[in-house]
Amino acid sequence: MRDTFHADLDTLNDQLIEMSRSVAEAMRGASRVLVESDTARASEVIAGDTDINELQYTVDDRVTEIMTQRQAVATDLRFILSSIRIATDLERMGDMARHVAKLAQRLDPDGALTQTRPIFEAMATAAARIADKTTRVLETRDRLDATQLDLDDDEMDALYSRLLGQLSSQWTHGAEAAVDVAMIGRSYERYGDHAVRIGHQVVYLVTGEIHLDRPQ
Amino acid sequence: MRDTFHADLDTLNDQLIEMSRSVAEAMRGASRVLVESDTARASEVIAGDTDINELQYTVDDRVTEIMTQRQAVATDLRFILSSIRIATDLERMGDMARHVAKLAQRLDPDGALTQTRPIFEAMATAAARIADKTTRVLETRDRLDATQLDLDDDEMDALYSRLLGQLSSQWTHGAEAAVDVAMIGRSYERYGDHAVRIGHQVVYLVTGEIHLDRPQ
């Protein structure tokens, strides 16, 4: 049987998994606002982000509690400190979902969306895959899954480049819609980046190797 | 005289201050690329971001070292855990400066910039003020300065709204330049947001009060 201290660490990990599921769900909702023009769902996603933010405070409080309990050994300490960073990235992923939901409401289904929907659909699929893999990585700490997040993110980056490519010469829906499209795309792209950072944290937990995040 | 443990905490704070000065310098450089079309400076800002990222790892390593040294009491622990979060926000501020420098090189001084330069100049001034105040807050932990960052950030948000307003009907420089302008504006806006988060962390350090970051 695990002692109280380690049971608390398990609970901490469970809270990260819960956060990860929430940000997966949030981006799924946001993607539906976008690709299905389901604007009724937007307010739900936007309101739900407050719960995700509060989960981060729960994680932070638990970390403080755990740290005051006893002097942690190196491996436990590594996990505890990583939790703070992982929760920060998850919180940002929630922000990105909120951002997509907010901007997606304004896109004209018969205008800007006609030209961008296929790419957005692919971005939505990639984001869902990334989010589910992030949750799995937190559950299993599988190093292979964690590093595969880099590849999924490369795909997302490529989609983002293609999207920006649409906003060049052949764009006919005006500057304002172009900005909304680019901002939505960037939110998906950032969502992937944060998942990659979580993957690197997990690799660091498992191996002690730091993967330096190089400038994009 | 301070003992080794507290001397290490001082060093940790010095590293945060050093990071804060670096991100102030980075955004000043990026702003010169933007408002003075000093494109030669862009590569310097972009390369410098790697140093800022590495400062974050230095902070993280020091935190781990400090934590394995001894069981910290509540107030020290609060500072140690805050350092991780503050370093994360500073690292992101560095990213925002890099992003401005990168995109600013593409803006046409005789095109998109003619319409946006006054607002960008105001954003550059606001960013410099915010960055300097952030450094001062880390140096003095002055609660008033920390909360004033919220007001400075409100000004930045207002400038960002005005900038986006420029990209509506009267915009004549095409969708691609509109997207670059919006992304640069958003980077300044995010730069301010991260400074506000640092301000809240410092208030939390001084008072123990958590200021919940509400969705924008």
Q: What overall form of chain A do the CA principal axes indicate?
A: elongated
**Strand portion of chain A:** under 5%
- Cα-to-Cα separation, first versus last residue of chain A: 45 Å
CATH superfamily of chain A: Phosphate transport system protein phou homolog 2, domain 2
Query: Major sheet of chain A: size, sense and barrel closure?
Result: none
The residue-averaged pLDDT of chain A reads: 92
Question: Would you give an account of this structure?
Answer:
- The structure is a homodimer of 216-residue chains.
- With 216 residues, chain A is an all-alpha fold.
- Chain A is 82% helix and 0% strand.
- In chain A, helix 1 (4-35) packs parallel to helix 3 (74-104), helix 1 (4-35) runs antiparallel to helix 4 and helix 2 packs antiparallel against helix 3 (74-104).
- Chain A is elongated and about 60 Å long.
- The interface between A and B is large, with 40 and 40 residues.
Please describe the topology of this protein.
Two copies of one chain form a homodimer.
Chain A: H1 4-35, H2 42-69, H3 74-104, H4 112-140, H5 143-166, H6 174-207
Helix pairs in contact in A: 1-2, 1-3, 1-4, 2-3, 3-6, 4-5, 4-6, 5-6
Structure described in brief:
Two copies of one chain form a homodimer. Chain A has one domain (4-207): Phosphate transport system protein phou homolog 2, domain 2 (Methane Monooxygenase Hydroxylase, Chain G, domain 1).
